[in-house]
Specification:
The protein has about 350 residues and is an alpha+beta fold. Among the domains are: about 110 residues, Nuclear Transport Factor 2, Chain: A (Roll); about 120 residues, Nuclear Transport Factor 2, Chain: A, CATH 3.10.450. About 25% of the residues lie in helices and about 25% in strands. Strand 11 and strand 12 form a beta hairpin. The radius of gyration is 40 Å and the shape is elongated.
Length: about 350
């Protein structure tokens, strides 16, 4: 009886220990966990391992991207080309823009274009001059694919002079700079050989070509061609009417969206020189068949605020069923190039014949 009593007490004590969670850990020792606890721990370890495997590449990429960048500024790599002037022109635009914005401490930015800028003495605050628009207006090739002289126009906003009246607005000016641009070899990155030189505006070139159209004539509302043009531009620029009604089949044109003008009026029409005004009344008249006619059309377009702007369009009209339709908006007007000397026939030689 005593033996069974001792065994019963032992079983009861074991049950009490299992039921009391505070008895699981005593004196720094951990008792054997249950089967359920082992399963839970195994699942947690497995999930942690998967999380580390997934996060590893992300953490590695973050470590690479978070490396501190170098303090030195590298030059913009603009490749030269002996076939065009886009590279030297674009390089000079960037250079002049950086030059105009430069101030105290901007030497490294300029040195990206011109190596000699590291020793410059620059004063004033950077960005004291704001560059609004900038463009290369003249690119002269000195040595094919190696050396260019570029003239850059810059529209700048400058602060009012110190001695000006209080509240005076900043000055907006158009300034011109000439830049020597060089490439070590054909296709090499470009570099400036000197600081920009401020110059006067380049003289306008005399046009060598003429429009292949007659003199502009006032638009007459009674002219069938002018009527088509008026309806077309009203739909195209101001959204009044359906554009497709005035366009030839197969021609894909869409109105300007959103409409920038509230109205559009045709004011003048210039017809290609091949057109013969048989009536002499300055009217194009109705088409006799399916002929095509090239025009330059002057349009007065009124903005929503009522201010009118003159516009000019080159286009082609096509006849169909006794009326005109717009067959195309031409990208450029037609021109008549001047006759060039005929060099195909060699000049007589002065050397004696054998």
């Amino acid at each position: 009886m005593r033996r069974r009593s001792r065994q019963g007490h032992a079983r009861q004590a074991a049950a009490d220990v299992a039921a009391d969670p505070e008895l699981d850990e005593q004196g720094g020792w951990w008792t054997s966990p249950s089967t359920g606890s082992v399963a839970v721990a195994t699942s947690a370890v497995r999930r942690l391992a998967w999380a580390l495997m997934i996060a590893g590449p992300v953490l590695g990429g973050w470590a690479i991207m978070s490396q501190p960048s170098a303090d030195t500024q590298s030059a913009p790599v603009v490749q030269s080309s002996s076939r065009d002037t886009a590279g030297p022109g674009g390089f000079a635009e960037l250079y002049v823009a950086a030059f105009l914005r430069a101030g105290e401490g901007s030497q490294s930015e300029l040195a990206a274009f011109y190596s000699g800028a590291t020793d410059l003495e620059l004063g004033g605050k950077p960005d004291a001059v704001q560059v609004g628009q900038i463009a290369a207006v003249r690119v002269k090739e000195i040595s094919p694919g190696r050396y260019w002289s570029v003239t850059v126009a810059a529209r700048v906003l400058e602060s009012a002079p110190k001695n000006s009246a209080a509240g005076e607005q900043p000055l907006i000016r158009m300034r011109f700079f000439q830049v020597p641009v060089e490439a070590d070899r054909d296709g090499a990155p470009l570099a400036a050989l000197a600081l920009p030189a401020e110059v006067t505006a380049p003289a306008g070139a005399n046009p060598k070509a003429e429009f292949a159209y007659g003199s502009p004539l006032p638009a007459q509302a009674s002219d069938p061609a002018v009527d088509t043009l008026s309806q077309f531009f009203g739909a195209y620029l101001s959204g009044s009417g359906e554009l497709g009604r005035y366009v030839s089949p197969g021609t894909r044109l869409s109105p300007v969206r959103p409409a920038p003008y509230r109205s559009a009026t045709v004011t003048q029409v210039a017809v290609e020189t091949a057109f013969q005004d048989s009536d002499g009344d300055g009217r194009i008249g109705a088409p006799a068949g399916r002929e095509r006619l090239r025009l330059v059309v002057s349009v007065k377009a009124a903005r929503p605020d009522g201010i009118a702007r003159p516009l000019s369009y080159a286009l082609t009209l096509a006849g169909r069923d006794g009326r005109w339709e717009v067959a195309a908006l031409d990208s450029t007007p037609q021109i008549a190039l001047p006759d060039l000397p005929d060099t195909s026939t060699a000049s007589p030689s002065n050397s004696p014949t054998q």
